[in-house]
TrEMBL record, chain A:
Organism from which the protein derives: Halobiforma nitratireducens JCM 10879
Matches recorded under Pfam families: ETF-QO_FixC_C (PF26311), FAD_binding_3 (PF01494)
Protein name (Swiss-Prot/TrEMBL): FAD dependent oxidoreductase
Residue intervals of the FAD-binding domain: 19-366
Domain (FixC-like C-terminal): residue spans on this chain: 389-448
Keyword Nucleotidyltransferase recorded: no
Gene Ontology terms for molecular function: FAD binding; oxidoreductase activity
Automatic annotation (TrEMBL), chain B:
Domain Electron transfer flavoprotein alpha/beta-subunit N-terminal: 24-216
Entry's family note: Belongs to the ETF beta-subunit/FixA family.
PANTHER family (alphabetical): ELECTRON TRANSFER FLAVOPROTEIN BETA-SUBUNIT, PROTEIN FIXA
Pfam family, one: ETF
Native source species: Halobiforma nitratireducens JCM 10879
Protein name: Electron transfer flavoprotein alpha/beta-subunit
Alphabetized GO MF terms: electron transfer activity
Cross-referenced CDD domains: ETF_beta
Classification via InterPro entries: ET-Flavoprotein_bsu_CS (IPR000049), ETF_a/b_N (IPR014730), ETF_b (IPR012255), ETF_beta_N (IPR033948), Rossmann-like_a/b/a_fold (IPR014729)
Membrane-crossing segments per the record: none
Length: 451, 258
């Protein structure tokens, strides 16, 4: 007797309105939204254009995790190292002046919720958490547009044959280069002054083990986050450089305004190479082999650039909503992405309970985001981007040089009394900032960076 | 007229991920995820083209462990109408002889008019299984097929075969086993709703050795292949030299050639 096929195969599957929500993009914002909605019992389709979540994602390297820790069993998360040291460094052409923080508390769990991660591993894991809660992950599929019905958004179009699918809610978590949201007139294309370009290499050290531990003074799972400013980091451009330690690799990169990349004839690759060659940086990465090179655009418009976050049938989250903070001291985006996905997911779940799809029904999302650290921080530092832009020559070139000169003078070993060295050091700084009056003005202007 | 087209697919280590350790120069297979054999994707495409011509059903079959269901779900996502996994501990250690017997019995049970396979798998590269299926069933075979053309009115399938110095056009009576030449059938993208269905909601039928009544004809015991031995070849030391001037390069070449 011949065996037979089971006969419950569906000949012509159709999933229109089978899902409560479609999430465009399985990055951190998208997966946070999918996980939140799945937790609340919604059927979610999470569409990712990469062959797996994280395959297409780029960020510097430090993830701040207070919300992710709430949403997941974070002990299983594929993190690289916790951040045990933060170092801020001003680079002139040949000099470095740095401040380093290594609080003992950061060695204790949860390590100030700051970890280095590699997105290929982390995003895949985070999307899996959403899938385990019941979300359906669909890889290798690019959303190309939105479907509208009676003015409201009612689904998405993809690059696949038979490629449209309808659902009551769409969450746009497509990242900084938000072609779908822009194509559907849900947001304006960002101006070039408000977009940064980031390039990054992941380096390994093939010659021997424990190079990272030795060079960065680390034990066990501790890691570092080094930030660099000044012309030694990104030349004439507006931005900075970074080094983060992963478990077996180091992430090194620069991020600066795309306008400078275009206007100053300073290609991102050349800028990164110059940064890697700086005398204060080169010894940290010597004998390294590049295992990955990546680049991305970063929306840096701040609070003023946030588009309308909700529309009839849709919400915008993460980088697509411009939720990135870069004020020099704080460089954050992924934590805001998670936070926005979480609030959007909750708002949609609440609206779905009531069977409503209008933008007014989703208003809880922008409202709770306003109340959260995300918008508060963005608004708090909005003034800063403008101020820094005005003072860029002073901050990125004159001051780093002046501080280096001051340090050189202050510690000079010769046969002059120390008093005269201190005087020379003081005058190096004062002449850069325009005397005591200039220093006072600067201090006043930037006091809010740390307060 | 509608045909039953059965496609053999196999789960193999992802060749893109089978890296070479840059320090030792050895293959690192362990970390490679299991994926569908590349040539099998093209076999599926060849099957869909025949279905486009004559109608009917494309059914994917795979012989492998339970986790090989993934490639069958993918095959349904790509456009197959159904899929069956042939899985049994008894198959362990089977070489190409019992493997092609198993697939031949399955193709018979599915009442195949056409069986299509990739020309070989990337993990063992024997190319013996498609002709083996034909031999076990006494069916016709069209190997290294670059193009297929269904002729339902004659109950035949024609194929353009890649042969040395050109190609030949051969028509075979049904049922026929086809080995699709690699690189000739660019797989079409999976339709959206079918991809969602195949990957998430479809479950393949599972048959074991007993279902196919071949329990005593499979496994290591009845596999005639024996491995005589393996030898690792050390890489030949090559001399490297950097020259600054083109003339010096010419001199070096002359030295070697002379």
């Amino acid at each position: 007797m011949s065996p037979e096929l089971e006969s419950d195969t569906v000949a012509d599957p159709n999933y229109d309105d089978e899902f409560d929500a479609i999430v465009v993009g399985a990055g951190l914002a998208g997966s946070a939204a999918a996980l939140t909605m799945a937790n609340r019992g919604l059927d979610v389709l999470l569409i990712e254009r990469g062959s797996s979540p994280g395959a297409k994602n780029v960020f510097g390297g430090v993830l701040y995790t207070p919300t992710i820790r709430e949403l997941t069993d974070f002990d299983d998360a594929p993190v690289e190292r916790y951040v045990a040291e933060r170092r801020f460094s001003m680079l002139s052409k040949d000099d470095e002046t740095a401040v380093s923080l290594r609080p003992g508390e950061w060695h204790e769990k949860p390590h100030n919720d700051s970890y280095t991660v590699l997105r290929g591993d982390f995003d895949e894991w985070f999307a899996e958490q959403a899938a385990e809660e019941g979300a359906t992950l669909l890889n290798s599929t690019t959303v190309t547009g939105l479907i509208r019905e009676d003015g409201r958004i009612a689904g998405v179009e993809t690059d696949r044959p038979d490629g449209t699918i309808r659902a009551p809610y769409v969450v746009l978590a497509e990242g900084g280069n938000s072609l779908v949201s822009e194509g559907a007139n849900l947001k304006q294309t960002e101006t070039r002054e408000n977009v940064a370009v980031g390039v990054k290499e992941v380096l390994e050290f093939p010659q021997r083990d424990e190079v990272i531990e030795d060079r960065f003074r680390l034990t066990d799972e501790a890691g570092v986050s080094y930030h660099y400013f000044g012309e030694g980091a990104v030349g004439d451009a507006f931005g900075g450089g970074f080094i983060y330690t992963n478990e077996d690799t180091v992430s090194i990169g620069v991020a600066y305004r795309i306008e400078d990349a275009a206007a100053h004839d300073q290609s991102p690759e050349e800028t990164l190479n110059a940064f890697k060659s700086h005398p204060a940086v080169a010894p940290l990465v010597r004998n390294a082999r590049t295992v990955e090179y990546s680049a991305k655009t970063i929306p840096e418009g701040g609070a003023e650039s946030i588009p309308d976050l909700v529309h009839d049938g849709a919400a915008i989250v993460g980088d697509a909503a411009g939720l990135v903070l870069n004020n020099g001291v704080h460089l954050e985006g992924t934590n805001m992405a998670v936070e926005s996905g979480y609030h959007a997911g909750n708002a949609i779940a609440r609206a779905a309970d009531k069977g409503r799809v209008g933008a007014d029904a989703l208003q809880a999302y922008p409202e709770s985001l306003e109340e959260s650290f995300v918008v508060k921080n963005l608004e708090h530092y909005q003034w800063m981007m403008n101020a820094v832009e005005e003072d860029r020559d002073l901050l990125f070139e004159d001051l780093p040089r002046a501080f280096a000169d001051a340090g050189t003078e202050y510690f000079r070993m010769d046969r002059q009394p120390k008093e005269s060295h201190a005087k020379n050091a003081k005058s190096a700084v004062l002449s850069a900032v325009g005397g005591w009056t200039g220093a006072a003005k600067l201090a006043l202007r930037y006091r809010k960076v740390v307060t | 007229m509608s045909w039953t087209i059965v496609v053999g697919v196999k789960q193999v280590p992802d060749a893109d991920e089978v890296g070479i350790d840059p320090d030792t120069g050895r293959l690192d297979r362990a970390s490679a995820p299991a994926v569908m054999n590349g040539p099998d994707r093209e076999a599926l495409e060849a099957a869909f083209r025949i279905r486009d011509q004559v109608g009917g059903e494309v059914i994917a079959m795979s012989m492998g462990p339970p986790n090989a269901k993934t490639v069958l779900k993918e095959a349904v996502a790509m456009g197959c109408d159904d899929a069956v996994l042939i899985s049994d501990r008894a198959f362990g250690g089977s070489d190409t002889w019992p493997t092609s017997l198993t697939l031949a019995r399955a193709a018979e049970a599915l009442e195949a008019d056409v069986v299509i396979c990739g020309e070989e798998t990337t993990d063992s590269s024997t190319g013996q299984v498609p002709p083996g299926i034909a031999a076990h069933n006494g069916w016709a075979q069209l190997t290294y097929a670059e193009a297929v053309d269904a002729r339902p009115e004659e109950d035949r399938l024609a194929a353009r075969r890649d042969v040395e110095g050109g190609h030949e056009l051969v028509a075979a009576d049904l049922p026929v086993v086809v080995a699709a030449a690699y690189g000739e059938f660019d797989p079409r993208p999976a339709p959206l709703h079918r991809k969602i269905y195949g990957e998430n909601d479809f479950e393949p039928t599972v048959w074991d050795a007993e279902d196919l009544e071949i329990k005593d004809e499979v496994g290591l015991e009845v596999s005639p292949t024996s491995v005589g031995g393996m030898e690792t070849v050390d890489p030949v030391e090559r001399k490297g030299e950097v020259v600054d001037e083109i003339d010096d390069l010419a001199d070096s070449i002359e030295e070697v050639v002379a």
